[in-house]
Fold these 3 entries.
Entry 1:
Amino acid sequence: MHIHAYEKLWLAAAIALILLLIGSVTYGAVGPGVAMVTDSENQIDAGGLDEDERFSEPRVEQVGENHYEAYVVAYQFAFDPSPIVVPEDSRVTLYVTSRDVVHGFEVVGTNANTMVVPGEVAQISFEVDEPGEYGVVCNEYCGAAHHTMEGKLHVVSQSEFENRGEDA
Amino acid sequence: MSRTETTQAPVDEAIDDEEFDPVGTLALIAVYFAILVLAWVYIYYIEFLGRDLVVVG
Amino acid sequence: MSEALRAEQTFADKFPNEAKVVRAAFLGSFFALFLGAVFGIIQTLHRTGIFRGFIASTDYYTVLTAHGVFMVLSFTIFFLVGLFTWAVTRSLDRPLVNIKITWTWYGLMAAGMTMAGFSILAGFTNAIPVSADVLYTFYAPLQAHPLYYAGLTVFVVGTWLAGADWFRTYLAWKRDNRGERIPLQTFMVLTTMIMWYIATSAIAASILLFLLPWSLGLIPSVNPTLTRTLFWFFGHPVVYFWLMPAYLLWYTVLPSIAGGRLFSDPLARVVFVLFVLLSTPVGIHHQYLDPGIAEGFKFISMTNTMFLLLPSLLTAFTVVASVEYGARRRGGTGLFGWLRALPWRDPAFTGMMLAGLMFAAGGFSGMVNAGMNINYMIHNTLWVPGHFHLTVGTAVGLTFMAATYWLWPQITNKPIYSLQIGLFQVVLWFIGMALMSNAMHAQGMLGVPRRTAEPEYSGFDYPTAFGGFEELNLQIAIGGTLLFLSTVLFLGNIVLTMGNPKVSGIAESIRPALSGPTDAPQVLDNLRVWVSIALVLVVLAYALPLAAIISDGGLLGPGVGTYPVWLDGTVHALAETATTAGWMLVDSLTVLGAHVADTLSGVAP
């Protein structure tokens, strides 16, 4: 089959481009260590979250010297807890599930983003640095009031984090 | 209209056809390739990896 | 009849029965485009906050479901079946085997789309206890009325029968033409349909085994991850079901309009074979952020997807080379100067060229979507609609409109009412889409979510990196308005064309390729080989993920409830009071339109 020399050149360039893309993604996974949302958590009964040790009381908990876990429930039409409060300069692991339909959990303007599927627990971990406030939106259509579904993520100073229970 | 002209124009001799080198295409597609590579490098390494809250676990 | 006289005959002259089918299919397509455009302008003004008086925000999702289904299922696929009927008949130079079967599949498609469309539109009023506010992706546990799922099924079965019709016609031709290469257009139709059969098997399974029985109350629940995965098994190849007709036009019609010839028939075949192989084992790239699927499967999907870029990149070269050939024959010179020698006053030409140009940009945003980890940045943001309005919206939609200016006279013997308006219309589309899509991509980079009636939130402000949120909203609204105007001009032009008298002497022909089918290796025409490989690849990509999903969560889901959105009467009641009058008008137009479509499709030879 006759392929013109220029088209052969383009074919080689196209394959090089494809390898650049695959290589970049692989670098992202290996270098900075970007990890995809995966099926690491067990299934859960979406109708029985009240009996679940983590999700019956959505909260933030310290689990290591600088490691905090947040158990987040998404439902029509809010996130619990909101705001999710974590201290600066720490590693945060979110466990997010849904009581009802499929939702999204997106920390606006950042790379923290996951689908939230009833019956599944989505787990994502990231580092937080300086204090600040982030908005959280549900970015998957979940019903008639989907556009009102939002939350907050607050990164606060260490002292503010330790004193946070006192205002409740 | 110009359209009827194109379909009634005589078909070229075979010799011309086989010697056709699409240099213009090569030039255009080289420009496109360059744009793609630069845009990708920017959006992946600078935009994406430069953002807050990169998921690492 | 002498050769010279035959060359003067249009498609409508040679194949009047098939021409009727093509016309009916195009009219169904354009009716869907009309409805989709009306919903589109409502959406664009509502979402951007420019005007929220047409509908309540809770009804936005009914509008969005209608816009999605009418545009990407009805407009595109009705056009495809018309185009493919023309292409098969023309390239095999013989009528379809049984025109009654043809009208049957057309009727099934029309019936199915009417059922689905009715179930969606009924969601605007509480007087009818039917709705389908589940969007074009209908993710469980959100549930639609059974009529929605049943309608989509009937529609797809219609397309299956259409494929069988074309395959039968091809087989009849093959018996009479032993040893000949499959004509290129028919080859493209057959390979596209093979891909479609594989793709729709999963969505048919999802609907028939799970979603439809569940909506009828026959099973208590479904597994959301399983039904999502089956949807996206279909949801990626469907974009190639939209694209491949556009490619057929770019490869086999555009070169002749440009005054040139297709640069390489064999490479066109290779591209379509690559789509058969690679379109299906990639659906998981729509689920990169799903918690129920392992990262390893996502990585495999990513590499398959990146290789799926290859047929499109090859198409760019071959199509541009074919057009350049035409430019040089017309006297064009220079490295870039040859572009000036092309027939830019021809709306069919300019429309397809602009569509291709826009596709080049859409390809880039698609690479970002496909890049697994970079998907975190833009998943479910407005970047995604920005991307697909470039691809299905323009590469496909604009190509279909542009091609109509060339093809409609061939199937009706009527010249287009105004080619100048046609030219203005295609350029207007390009400008409107450039504005709207660019702003959508930028808002996506700010984190603005898609699929939402009101993207402003009380608790935070968006970052202002790529132009402010408000300025970008204005840009989206302006772009969307230009697109709506462009659509009205297109539809008006066709309606006025229908009132034109028939003429003779407007037949167009297609020039043979520079490198013809005999230059292509025989194996390319061996469809059985490609089907087998495609099935193997699909099994490799999906067997393990599906097995894992089913063993983890069960066939019917891990303790998940049912959310029949159509029972949410309270919210609807509040919204309905404000908008009843407007929607009664839409309902009447819908009924009228259905009558028109039925009447046209009922015209038998």
Entry 2:
Amino acid sequence: MTSIRHFPATHPLPDWRNFGVMLRVLLGVNGLALLAALVQAGDIGKWLGSYLQMAAVVEPLLLVELGLLSLARNALWRLPLRLGQACVVGLAGVLAAALFLYARSLSLVEAGVAARAVLLAMATAGLLLAYFELRSRALSPAQAEARLAALNARIRPHFLFNSLNAVLSLIRARPQQAEAALESLSDLFRAAMRDPGELVSLADEIDLGRQYLELEKLRLGERLHVDWQLAGVPMDLPIPPLMLQPLLENAVYHGIEPSPEGGAVTVAIRQVGEELRIVISNPTAGQLPHAAGNQMALANIRERLALYYDLEARLETEAGDHRYDVRITLPCKRKTH
Amino acid sequence: MQAQNPLNILIVDDEPLARDRLRTLLSDLAVQLPSVVVGEAANGLQALDFLRDHPVDVVLADIRMPGMDGIELATHLGRLEKPPAVIFCTAYDNYAVQAFDLNAVDYLLKPVRAQRLLAALHKLPGPRPGSELLAGIGQEMRGGGRTHLSCHERGRLLLVPIGEVLYFKADLKYVTARTAEREYLLDEALTHLESEYADRFMRLHRAVLVAKTALAGFEKAAGDDAEAYGWALLRGVPEKLPVSRRQWAPAKALIKHS
């Protein structure tokens, strides 16, 4: 089972293939270059020119280094941490040296410049590694797990007590249905109490959603219709647990319960290229979509997505006149180790 | 207790299984406390409809229901000449439960226990929640005012959906609500209505609240009218409403934005 210890944000040597990591490296290095240019320029008017001159050297170096690092990611992870970090710094130095030796061979620069460039490149790489190590410590497994546990979606007490009440009324008249309902309820609570750091398969998450909606149907009867649209979905894809259920709960609580006639909740899941797209849509039932409870559940899921996927997943909402949509986009990647 | 006559009970809950459960419990308790479930309703509107022709002793009302919730139902029932007792049931409503505890109003928590239900029925008639308490709980729970206003006409309770009201006008003693069809005399205070429906209505004049969506245009008053600085024109009805000097600019701004 994939555990939280392998998440990109929590390894001190970052996942160089992760979009968020690349973005941070690019921004970090260019920020340092801007600062260096300001020091070098001596006059604010020359700042931009100085930066552009520097960028001509820095950008190719940076891109080549990032490319090599993302190729060597798994090899680096297998090394002891300090050795891996030394390799990254060393690589920056070697690349800088290579570039300047090449420039030297064309007699474009003088001898002392190359050594300075190598030192600067290594210092920059060291600074960034220190940043990633600090960041991983801030998001250390223990802390991330604690945060996840706190964030992990809670099942609404309103739903629990209403369901128990419904089950109680079934016991005498329809005992078999009561049994099935209690089984679903216990599955739901088992899922809610599971270690939040573990990923579950998409199939399990969909099953849980179905069980949850069956319970709601017991209470709401004809008022609740559900339309599942699952075409060619990678059922074994690992995803964070309890992503779907809280959103379904929101859809029922805000979209179906406030309306005497009820309505339909649609769940559409499909794979588009390397992305998994989940859309949950419910009628608005004349309710304001920015009710406090709704926003809390959404903020909660957003933060969990950030912990699991960094910048590679997103959650968007769209409030139309008649329907309210929540869209989640996840990378369809499987852990390679 | 004069338990000779069975209690006539109306069960109000939007979930059919929750209504079944109360029915079962009441029949289990029949020996200790004879009762008859004379009707069931899925929300407050249906309950009020039923109560027009069927007097009952006790209403067992869920708090959260679509259409009209239990809190609002109790508000309207409070205006009847001989209001039935109301016992609230709720699965989980922190705010309402705290408010009831503070005001010694009895309520039942779902899943309801038979003994608890019996005790609540024995305690009747208990303290009736005041309209201010209900208004407070309602505001907190639904984040807005009542869905309907009620008024008496020839001994009957009439409901006016708030969405149909074009304006309220205060006279010496009463407040009238005007819909596209007719006028209703309400036993309400204009200031209460103004704060309850702040998002829906705006004050045009000392004695007038208008639905923001009903405003069609404005007319300057001719000469020096003491009564009004100008007049507001409405959609759907011919009459004009007075606008005070103070409300003139905000009212005109409103129509420009919509």
Entry 3:
Amino acid sequence: MRQVALALASGLLFGAGLAVSGMADPARVRAFLDLFGAWDPTLAFVMAGAMVPMAIAWLIQQRMTKPVACNAFDLPGTRLIDGKLLAGAALFGIGWGIGGLCPGPALADLLIAPFEAGIFVVAMLAGMTIHRITT
Amino acid sequence: MTLPGFPDAMPVAGFLGGLMIGLAAAIMLLGFGRIAGVSGMLARATAIATAGAPRALAIAFVVGLPLGAMLVTLVYGGVETRFGAGILQLIGAGLLVGLGTRLGSGCTSGHGVCGLSRLSPRSIVATFTFMASGFATVGVMRLGGWL
């Protein structure tokens, strides 16, 4: 129960951060990608802000033997840079550009703009399912 | 506060919101020893992914996202969400984002926020790739007259 509450708190803070930073607005996200239009650098400030707590967290993590609320760290160990990584990231970038939405903001917008965000999220789940059944 | 030359930019609000996102990811990392990757958490919450975080954790995290954004909307009296994309565009974009993030093992949060701050070479390459792909896509849309 305590674990679920902490995970919910993390999600709440993440979603709130997306809304505060303007990243819940697909037009603003796409404007960051729009080098030939009215470029909006806000997304770079969001990334810079997010790096601060996370850089500190990684330093702390190195000195911990186990996480606070469970028994072991479960972090990606692979260092493989392969075709799947590149192709996946490239496809994701195309979708990101077309819609101005990545997974976090799409979910964050589900209650604010249920129609558009809902369509996107259902399609995104379909895309994830296509990956699942083809691999 | 505005940025000279970029009247629409929100540098301070962006940075503050970024701090909140980073703190949320730090809670996941130090609390549960996990990457706060939204695509991975969503796949796990919906059982599309069979391995990963315990489902209850993934569901709680995923449910928190719209609730957190909704809270800010209530406090601010509204948050801008300009979609400007038609239904077919949203469907196509969603399919590509879903497929791409699973194939590439992450999105802006997992590879971007968590991976870059860890200086993970894999995440640096992934982030550079989806950024370049996003710039190219919107560039084509802009120059092609679709925007």
